[in-house]
Every structure is written in structure tokens, then in C-alpha cells.
Amino acid sequence: MQSWLSSRLEEVRATGTGQLIAVRGRRQAGKSTAVESFVEASGVPYVYVTGMYRMPERVQLDAAAEAFGSSRNPVLTGLPGVPGSWRDWFGQIALAASQGPVIAVLDEFPWIAAGDSAGLEGVVQAMWDRVLEKLPVVLILIGSDIAMMERLAQHDRPLYGRLRELVVPALNPAEVSAALPGMTAFEAVDAYLVTGGYPRLVADLRRSGLGVRDWVRASFGDDLSPLVATGRLTLDAEFADREAAYRVLSAIGAAEPARLGLGEIAAEISDPGGATKSVETAALRALAMLADDKRVVERELPAWATSTRLRRYRLTDTYLRFWFRYVERQVDVIVRGRGDIATAAFDRDWASWRGRAVEPLVRRGIELLGATDGRLAGVESVLPWWTRDGQVEVDVVAADRARTRVLGTIKWREVGGISRHEMAELGALRSRVPRAADAALAAICPSGEAPEQADLAFSAADLVAAWER
To answer: What is the value of pTM for the model shown?
Structure first.
């Protein structure tokens, strides 16, 4: 990311014209840290403004004015007066840029824009077109509201055609593995499932010098530990006034991963004696917001499904899955200093929960391997499959547009591989999964050990390597 931003700065230096950049990604993915490191290392004057949640325009603007004198690089000094509007503030950026390259950052741009009665997007567009684009300015807009940041670039918005977009995901499994030297691929996958690839959590795990499970146990002994506190901080920023959405998230996160349909979610959030229809309507509205706007929930259908009636829901973020499962339900006892109770719950079903939670990660890994592994040539989608009653499931159905190419079973055990009996059970399902009569059979487990019935085998190391591109 920093090398990409440095390249944009070099283009500005070379051409003398501006670059407008929109950076988006999930909260805690490390966007702000990376951008701040870039501007501090850039060697050019910069101003870095952090938006404040639900603060009015005047408060946001005062903070933006104060930011002119707070950078660690040579500060932007001698600017006239206090800006009375965002138009004035950008005018001061233009004045500073008349002396040479300048970087301006508006972090949490959606929060800043929400407090602007005059329409900040339109102000940015007007000042960019008239003045800033013609000067050596790098203007960076950062936002954790992914849907809002995506909308900035749409054709009916003021900044259409002006933005260069940068998406900052959390660390992927290969990056987590690289950040935790000495861990096996299996242990790195555990670390990813618990931290979600959040840089702050991965760094805390590394500093501890502990294995993943011992780090979890130690974290449960401190209610201010990053593992415990980050979930609440993230959710308070996103859903402070959305009780229904939070309850839906909690219901999905506390359940076995990807097990709940709409009816089960409605049952989890309903009050005794409440109207079922109204609860389902509220759940649907919350799910639409969580899936389409916040992108923290994913809808999942079985492979080859022709109806949405089989839809299930799961959290996209592995850290939030872990947090809702093991922290949210135990946070009261953790705060009381009884982390031992939370630890007992974790020790009791971690192995079982992990076996389910790893499945979406494995499917994504298999999909990525399709680009480089000739055994998966032609695979375009990798999904689960289940029967209408949910009694029979296949973990991996890898398909092209015409047929199922691979059926796979995932057994995420610390010791041993996949048995002959388990492969025989998978083979028997060729007749039930659509278009799978000639599908290859894949055994997927940490060790990669597989019986002779398996046509393909994938280990934890294979899956982690899928992200090394």
C-alpha cells in the first residue's frame, strides 16, 4: 500500500498536478496506520484530519484547522486566518501547495461528510476541478463505511471520474503467517481465525510470544486486552444506534458458523410472545443493511441452487465470528475478573467451532489455488452444498459453469488425516450433488494426509500458500 501511495506522490512531483485518492476497508484493517506512516515518511508537508462521529460541521472544521499545525513533517504555517467553511479550508491547502507538494488526508471521511450541511462531496468536487487538480496536491479520503466510500465513485456522484480507489483488506492468511515466524501453517490459520487478520491483534499476539490458544486464555484475563476490547470498539462505532442490527449480528455470530437461515435468526432475536411476521421483517431489514451497506454479513446459498429459500447467513469477519462466540457472551464475567469462566467455554468447544469456522477460508483458498494449480483448472466457483432439510452437507463443491469438477471434505484436526470411511461417504454423495457424477474427490486437512480414494489432497500449508501471490 505504501509503495502504491509513494508512486502516486512521485507522479504528483513529476507532473505538478494533483491526485485524488479514496481509501476504503473494514475498520481495524490498518488503513489509517498505513496512510499515516506514508505521510510521515514522505518528506513533504502534510495535514492529517480525523473525522469525529456525529460531531457537527463547525467542530469538524475547527479540528481540521488545528490539524495544519500538528504534523511531524515541516508544518503548514503562516496560513491566513481560521477557515470559515470547507471551501476556505481547501483554499488554504491550495495556498500551501503553491509553494510545493502537499498531502492532505481526511480520515473517516463519511463521518466528516455526515456533519456537513452544505454537501462536502460537492465542495471537494468544485475545489478539485477549479484549483487543486492543477496543483501538486495528494488528497486522500479514508473511510470504513465501505458502501459509502464505494458510492463516491459512482456516476451520479460529484467525484465520479476523479478518484483513484485503493482497497485495504485485513491481513490475509499468508501475511499473518509471515508476521508470526515460527508458527506452522496450521497455527497460522488458527491465528487468522482468531484475529481476523487485524494488524493490531496480530501484533499483540506476536508481542506476547505465546501460541494462539495460550494468548486467547491470557487475553481473557484482561478486559482491556486488544482481543477483548477491539470487538466492542468496532461495533460501537458501526452500530451504536442500531439495536436490531446488533441483535442479528449477535445471533449469527454466537451460532455455529453459516448455520442460520432467516427463520432461525428471527427466532433468536424475538421476544417471547412477539409477532413472528414483524420480527422477520425487522430481521430482513437488518440483514439487508448488514450485508449490503456494512458488508459484515454474507448470504450463502448451496452450489447450483435455483431458489433463495435455502439461503443462510454468516459473518464475513473471522475475528467478529470469534468475538461473538467467545467474548460477547462472556464479557460480563471477564470484566468481573473471572476470565477462567470464558477460558473454560473456549477450551470446551474450540476444536469443534474451529472445524466449522475454517470452512469459508478453505473454500476461498481452493478458489485462489484454481489460478495456479493445474488440478483445479477450469474451476470458477467454490461453494458448499446442503439438502433442503440440512441433514446432508458437502463442504466443498468446486464447479465451472457446466459441471461440478471437485467434491471435497474438510476435517480440520490437529493430528491425523482423512479416513477411508470419510472418503467413501464423500464419494457416495456424487449421486446427490448436482452435476457431480464424474467429480474428483478432494481430502482437505491440516496434514494433507489422505487415503487412496482421494483424487486430490490439500494441506494447511497449501491453503496458506494460496494467498502468496
So the answer is: 0.88
